[in-house]
Design a protein that fits this description.
The protein is α+β, with helices and mostly antiparallel strands. Helices cover about 10% and strands about 15% of the residues. The strands form three sheets. The chain has a two-stranded antiparallel sheet.
Length: about 140
């Protein structure tokens, strides 16, 4: 009897299998699936551009130049390469330029990565006199 190996799985097949395994192990009939945590990022998927098996996250070209109206991963946003402010919609909120780079969210207050920025952290001090608008760069004390 010959020992035949299975052909390698495609990226879509691997992602489907990972998601099915995740939902089988992390859901029960009485749990609302909308409140379940996000499934883990599949192996080989870029956190910036969401391409699978094309490149690793650290080598994504979106880190240096994001095409206009590109779809980004949930845990990143676009920063203007001219003034450094965050984008609103498809252009910079401060200077109006459309050249931007993708940056991964990282909260220095609670330590969560890929979820939110410090200015949106639920644990931030709301009574602080310090305010910052990351979209325009406005800071006040």
């Amino acid at each position: 009897m010959e020992n035949k190996s299975k052909p390698p799985m495609t990226a879509e097949q691997r992602r489907f299998e990972e998601l099915m395994t995740y939902f089988v192990n992390n859901t029960s009939p009485n749990v609302d699936f909308l409140k379940a945590p996000d499934p883990p990022i599949p192996a080989g998927e870029c956190r910036y551009c969401l391409k699978v098996d094309d490149h690793i996250t650290q080598l994504c070209p979106y880190k240096y130049d994001v095409p206009k109206n590109a779809i980004l991963g949930k845990g990143c946003s676009v920063q203007c390469v001219v003034c450094g402010c965050r984008f609103r919609d498809s252009c910079c909120a401060q200077c109006g330029h459309t050249r931007g780079r993708a940056i991964l969210m990282d909260c220095r207050i609670c330590g969560k990565s890929y979820d939110h920025w410090p200015d949106m952290c639920p644990q931030r001090d709301l009574n602080s006199s310090f305010t910052c608008d990351p979209y325009t760069g406005y800071i006040s004390f």
